[in-house]
Amino acid sequence: MAANEDNLEFTLSLLAQIPSRPSRTSVSELLDALSAEYTCSERKIQRKLKFLTEQGYIEQDNRSKPYGYWLIKKPDFLSAAGLTAQQSLLLKLAEDHLTNLLPVSVMRSMKPIFQQAELQVNQINSADKPESQWLNKVRLVSETQPLLAPAIADGIFETISEALYHDKYLDLRYKNAKGQQKDKQGIMPLGMAQQGKRIYLVCRFPGYDNERSLALHRIESAKKSTLGFKRPTDFDLKKYDNDGRFGFGEGKKCRLSFHIKKSAGHHLSETKLSEDQTIEPSKEHKDYLHITATVIDSKQLHMWLNSFGEDVWGITTKQKS
Is there a cis peptide before residue 146, judged by omega within 30 degrees of 0? Predict the structure, then answer.
C-alpha cells in the first residue's frame, strides 16, 4: 500500500487503534498495528498524532516514557452519535453483509462507526421501543439447503482483497476442483463475489485476455506483488455476472422451453425466469404448465431444471444469435 499518512483511510485506521481514556497506546504499538497494512514509520505516526492532538481529538500522556496517547474526542467523520435509531440498525445490518465484500483495511477503518452504532442499538434496548426488537425481526434466509461456509486459509481473504483494492498483481497457489495443485504468478485480480457461502476471485491469468473464477477456499497461499496494473477497460463485473459466468455459463443466450407440474412451477408466475417469459397451460397434460423464456445457457440452469426430477419434461434450448 502506498504510504500517505494524510489520507482518510490511514487516519481512520490510526484512530481505530487509539483507546479512550484512561487506556493508552504508544507510537511503537501503533506502528506494529499499522505496518502490516501501510508503509509507515514512527516519524510519520508522530506527525499524524501531533496533528490530531492539535485538533483536540487525542491527548498525549507524558507522565512517563514512552509517551502514551488516548482518545478524548471522536472526530465528526468517525462519529455515529447523530444517527437515528433506524440508521444505527441499518449500519448493524450492513456490517454483517459487507464483511466479505470490503477489504479488511476498509472494514477495520469503519470499526469505530460500527461500534458506535452498536452502542446506540444497545441503548435503545427497551421493550416499549420497536427499534430495540428490529434485529430480531429480520433475517436473510437461504432458498436452498443451508450449507456451512468452506474454510479459507488464514490471510488469504486479506491479501486478495488488498491486491484487488489497489490493483496489484497476485502470486497464488491453489487446488482446482479435481484436487490438482497449481502455482500461478502475475495474476490480475479484477473482482470478488459471494455466491451463497462461497467467495470467488475473478481474475486474468498472464498471457490470457479472458477471465476465470477461483474459489477462495481452494487457494492455499497468496502473495500481493508490489507491481500494479492498469485495470482493463473491457471488463465489467456486472456483465460477467449477467452473462451467467458464476453459473458456469459462457454468456450465450438461449430460448428455453419446458413443461413443469403446476404444483412445482407455480412460483414461476411470481418470480419470472426473464422479462419475456410466457406461461400457459400445457396442451399435452392438464396438470402441467408450458414455460418459455430467454435465459443464459449454463450448467447452473440445467442443474436447476434437473432438480425438479420427474416434475419437468420436454426441455429444449435453442441458441440465440
Answer: no
24 with 66: CB under 8 angstroms?
no
Q: Which residues contact 236 (CB under 8 A, 6 or more apart)?
A: none
pLDDT digits (tens, 9 = 90+) for 128-181: 667 667 767 777 777 777 778 888 898 898 899 889 988 999 999 999 888 899
Q: How many CB atoms lie within 10 A of CB 246?
A: 17
| Amino acid code (one letter) for 293 | A
Asked whether the whole model's pTM tops 0.85, one would answer no
> How many domains is the chain partitioned into structurally?
4
Alpha helices in the chain (DSSP H): 8-16, 27-34, 42-54, 85-98, 104-109, 111-123, 156-166, 237-242, 262-265, 299-306
Q: Give me Rg for the CA atoms of the chain.
A: 26
Q: Which residues contact 229 (CB under 8 A, 6 or more apart)?
A: 167, 168, 169, 188
Q: Which domain holds residue 165?
A: 156-235
Q: Is residue 215 part of a domain?
A: yes
